[in-house]
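DATA SHEET
Item: assembly model
Revision: 1
Owner: S.N.
Input lines:
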Amino acid sequence: METLKLALSLQSAYALNSLIYRLRRFPVIKRFFKKNTSYAATELKKIWIVVGNTYRVFRAMLFAFLYYAGIFVAGLFRSSESDGFFEVMKASGPVFVFLLLILSLMGALYRNDLVDADYECYYAIRLLRTDAKKYILINYGLMLLKKVLTGFPFILLVCLLTKLPLYYILLLPLFIPAVKIVFAFFRIHRFVRVKKAEGSPLSTFLTLVLTAIIGAAGVLGYFAAERFSEILWTFAVFALAVIALSVPCALYLLRYDNYLVYYKRYLALSNENTNQIAKKTIVSQQKQIDDKTVMKTSKRSGFAYFADLFDIRHRKILGNATFIITLIMAIVFVAMYAGLFIIADTAMFERFGRILSRALPVMPFAFYIINRGQQYSQALFANCDRAMLHYAFYRKRSNVLRLFALRLAGIAKQNLPPALTAGFGFVMLRVLLNVRVYGLSGLEKIDILELFLFLVAPIALSIFFSIHYLMLYYLLQPFDIESKSRNFGYNFAMGATYMACYLSYSVLSTMDSLNPLVYGGILIAFCLVYSGIASLLVFLLAPKTFKNRV
Amino acid sequence: MNFTIEHLKKSYATKEVLKDITFTFKPGHIYALLGRNGAGKTTLFNCINGDIDTSGGTWYLSDENGNKRDLLPEDLGYVISEPMVPEFLTGREFVKFYIDVNKKHIKNLRSIDEYLASVAISPEDSNRLMKEYSHGMRNKMQMLINFISEPPVLLLDEPLTSLDVVVAEEMKDILRSMKGDSIILLSTHIVDLALDLCDEIVLLNHGVLTALSRDELGTEDFRARIIEALKEEG
């Protein structure tokens, strides 16, 4: 009970102080905070505890809403061919169940650890000397409980709206923690056997491959979703089996005693004074520098040489990632082209053609996910500008602008191959689909404007995302010495970008009244105008704003 | 060129860290900026380097005829206590990049190898990525880059504090050899280092700078006076 109270107090204190820290950065609100006393325990703080905890609940519910709404919309999108509102709703239910099971499996496999190497954990176990087993289990239990409680209302709502069998109201919220417990059991069990808390490169790779296979099964299943209502019962059996399996796994986790050793291995902390937590982000960014490229160089000079070497040494997060994304996209397109000639269901192709014509509003969200702008900015700061901004010559107006232009060209070059692949891939898909459905006369039915938009929209989006993140980085330079963003404006802009792309996907893509061609035209115009304004702002402001936050 | 600071102020909310910094530094001297932890030494350097905004004051360079001009980015070097170098470059690449960009400001241009040898970075080490460098090697690279164009003003923030004894002695020699016509302003809270390396001692106490008479430099009494003066703040 004491440990539970400590865990809750730590979470509450950490969240509250983070909120005060953020609010103190608001232009007007910060005046109401006294510099050094706002964190102290005062009468006012009791009110703040209520505010802080309300904010935590709100944030958790908001994330849960976005998550479940996203899955629900994906189900609606897939079922939009059904006749009538209620039929669409009903048909989307099994797709929702399927996607939720797949995503829960992927999440539990890829990101599921009993120990979260954050400050709260560090304070509790290292500094306050709390019983590691109790703390870790209670914290893990609270995390699972949070998932159940935040997910339940949305699952209930979807089940009622889509007329899913009522047992799913219980099965789905229980499945999510159960699948996490099962995978946590495997992780601890492996640790007992090989004494390794973090995976070797091989096991990390295998985890990635397995996650990708489940993801691929999800994508395939999503497109073959017509028959889901007939096999809905199998999802229930699977969920029930996982829930049953989680019981002995949970008992094993409760009986295991060596959590302190596990925690130490996980953090690789060797002595009391090492503040690994604070340096974790920097170290992880340094790892992105590829040692094997030390012999590769650039023939250019000055800042061009500098920018080239940065790109060469960061090929892991830039070139390699771009190559993989482009390759996966190309494989998906080729598989779809092959499918057009292997499958002989013309009616399905017609449906697919109608879905394809509504693909433009989905593009911003897709490009939001695959673009490398944010990772690029973070690496720029952690491995380059954090050091170089201390040198006065580096901050000269002409040098700041020169390097910005070089970097923009660099990141645009990284974002372009996936954009071109998507553009040409969609154009080819539309042409082949028309030929497959209507024969050669289908070529005459092709809307040239639609082809143009399919080709140009991905390129415009790739330019938009390239300049968007780089501009925000140069104008707000949000990162502190630990490479964490403390800037309200930057975090707000990041959230707004996500929401805009998400809304385009979740709302606009399902609106019948929206003309996809008009949307595509507006999208391209917006990207180009935005890029122009962003360049102008950087030219005017960046030499003053681009500096270290001391 | 003299370097003059006039009425520099810096406050954080209600706390006045730098009250009224007014001082003229002369070329060819190493100045020790002595102050206790939290006295504002790093804040003063960050203000001059433009990392933070000041609450008032000016600083400039002036020649023997009294002609003043603003301190430009190429006039200033700043070596911070935690050595900062771009870790994705090798030592050699960093020097090449710096020379490429600043060629017109470098008075006595030498080869990259000569520069690296001047701070005892071996050819083998010069071709390794700086992310693999030790703390001392990074410190030397940072010092070298700041010295290549021999800026009129060089700020060194606790440069020797975390170095082992061998590297610290190497760095002292490098500093003495690089002094030339530059003004080197070295902040430290180690009195022995100030007495050993510096030509002048300046105390940062209660947010103002005070020069101690050079005539008494090195005497036991002088050492005691420094400590007494610094104690006053506590």
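QC remark: The helical segments of chain B are 41-49, 91-102, 112-118, 123-126, 135-148, 165-178, 191-197, 220-231.
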